[in-house]
Design brief:
The complex is a heterodimer of chains A (about 110) and B (about 120). Chain A has strands spanning about 5, 10-15, 20, 25, 35-40, 45-50, 60, 65-70, 75-80, 90-95, 100-105, 105-110. Chain A has about 110 residues and is mainly beta. By secondary structure, chain B is mainly β. Chain B has no helices and eleven strands. The chains are: A mainly beta (about 110), B mainly beta (about 120). The interface of A and B includes residues 47, 50, 91 and 105 of A.
Chain lengths: ~110, ~120
């Protein structure tokens, strides 16, 4: 069974600073997808970034980038130039071909002015 | 693109009644949709996978007779909570799988808050 672990229940960062959220996972599969979703107070789940396991290059989306270490089964999210609107719960997720998505417990990020 | 709607956003019902929640993919076809449940300050727990034109696949511990799922078209899946009880009060979220292009990504609806009195 695949498991996803987020070891940081809460984190905070000053506005304009950089923060990294950790995620590790466990699987015996070689091909899979990894995701970071953001859930603001509205509770709408928003896709932040997506990584295919077969791609060595780390995914980036504007201020968001990942450090994907396949051998270590690690998938951290870096948020640069943090903004107040980045305050939310962040969930790391794993799936095989888009099915059966498993989520970590989440990290509550607070961006302080 | 990749917008998923959910209706209603909030519902209050009496114990023993049934409640239907709709999930629609607005700008793409979704052969597979998913239903999750989220308790306060917790992560999302997959309840069932809904496949268009076939029976849903339920996760272990989820009562299929209580949580009826219908996926009659490529853009609509419904979850009916039958004979609801206060312990069914929760936040229910659907997602739709977009397998087109470079997809295989799930896009989520805004959720439905169910309160059973």
């Amino acid at each position: 069974a695949q498991t996803v672990t987020q070891s940081q229940p809460e984190m905070s960062v000053q506005e304009a600073e950089t923060v990294t959220l950790s995620c590790t996972y466990d699987t015996s599969e070689n091909n899979y997808y990894l995701f970071w979703y953001k859930q603001p107070p509205s509770r709408q789940m928003i896709l932040v970034i997506r990584q295919e396991a077969y791609k060595q290059q780390n995914a980036t989306e504007n201020r968001f980038s990942v450090n994907f270490q396949k051998a270590a089964k690690s998938f951290s999210l870096k948020i640069s130039d943090s903004q107040l609107g980045d305050t939310a719960m962040y969930f790391c997720a794993f799936s095989i071909s888009g099915e059966d998505m498993r989520f970590g417990a989440g990290t509550r990020l607070t961006v302080k002015p | 693109g990749a917008v998923v709607s959910q209706h209603p956003s909030w519902v209050i019902c009496k114990s023993g009644t049934s409640v239907k929640i709709e999930c629609r993919s607005l700008d793409f076809q979704a052969t597979t949709m998913f239903w999750y449940r989220q308790f306060p300050k917790q992560s999302l727990m997959l309840m069932a996978t809904s496949n268009e034109g076939s029976k849903a696949t339920y996760e272990q511990g989820v009562e299929k007779d209580k949580f009826l799922i219908n996926h009659a078209s490529l853009t609509l899946s419904t979850l009916t909570v039958t004979s609801a009880h206060p312990e069914d009060s929760s936040f229910y979220i659907c997602s739709a799988r977009d397998s087109s292009g470079a997809g295989d990504t799930q896009y989520f609806g805004p959720g439905t808050r169910l309160t059973v009195l």
